[in-house]
Specification:
Elements (H helix, E strand, L loop, with lengths): L1 H10 L16 H16 L3 E4 L4 E4 L1 H18 L2 E6 L10 E11 L2 E10 L4 H10 L2 E11 H11 L1 H12 L4 H10 L5 H6 L5 E5 L3 E4 L4 H6 L8 E4 L2 E4 L5 E4 L5 E4 L4 E5 L4 E5 L6 H11 L8
Parallel strand pairs: 3-7, 9-11, 10-12, 11-13
Antiparallel strand pairs: 1-6, 2-8, 3-6, 4-5, 4-6, 5-7, 13-14
Amino acid sequence: AFQVAAMHKAFGATRRCAFIGEPVGKNTAPAIACAAALLKQRYGDAVMVVLPADHSIGPAVDFRECVRFAADLAQSRESLVIFGIPPAYPETGYGYIQRSDQAAQQKKIKAYSVLRFVEKPSANKARAYIKSGRYFWNSGIFVWKVSVILDEIKRLMPVLYSQVEALARKKFSARALNLYYRDCEKQSIDYGVMEKARRVLVVGGTFAWDDVGSWEAMGRIHPTGPSGTTIVGGPVFERNCRGSIIVNKSGRALAACGLDHLVLVATDDAVLAIDRRRLPAMRQYVAAMKAGKMFPKELF
């Protein structure tokens, strides 16, 4: 409820928006299926753009041009279109897309057939991908016709398709939505559909992109001082820190002295301190925290 209220405030009273609050997180496939079914019911066979929230994108004019091109492809070729980001360095925390032949072009924007999706690679593989010039980072931003994504869900995730059809028949009521999220499988759209889909195109993004969902992104998005340390939020007292990322969202004073290559994050209810070199293992650490049941589940 809090997140929906915040979205209403962000969009303002002048925009007509429909919000669906997830009662529980079940990854992207159930959410996308639900949104696609709602769009179909209200607007027919519309073109749908899926934009996860943890991205930094710019400039806006370049992004809009790519979206228009992708929407035209989705409409005319009835394809699932994904944005690929030309890799700037051998990132091991992102998925990759291996492209095949060029399929279309509009000005400087190019689209390619997708050969395969690759999960987070080792550092050696990531370097090889960049050297080949035939791989993109997987941005997780999709464009497709409602009918096309629902057809693929029906073919590849038939149980989820039946569940979302039942949800649509019940007009997306709160009770039906709760039942849908109680029963549906927790699955990503990447694994459930995209990796097995037959008609996928990748549009090479001509815009700047970063995944704000990682702590390393803080050092790329925000200014970095002479010693390579990035400070976000405040109040923060920093002395003699090198190559560190310090984030204070707690409202309390934070002092960091003599920290080398450390990520230090303070919020109202938790503090994280981790060696930057250990950030690729962050998912495993979080999983271990959850399994240990030492911390309240609300933290995760």
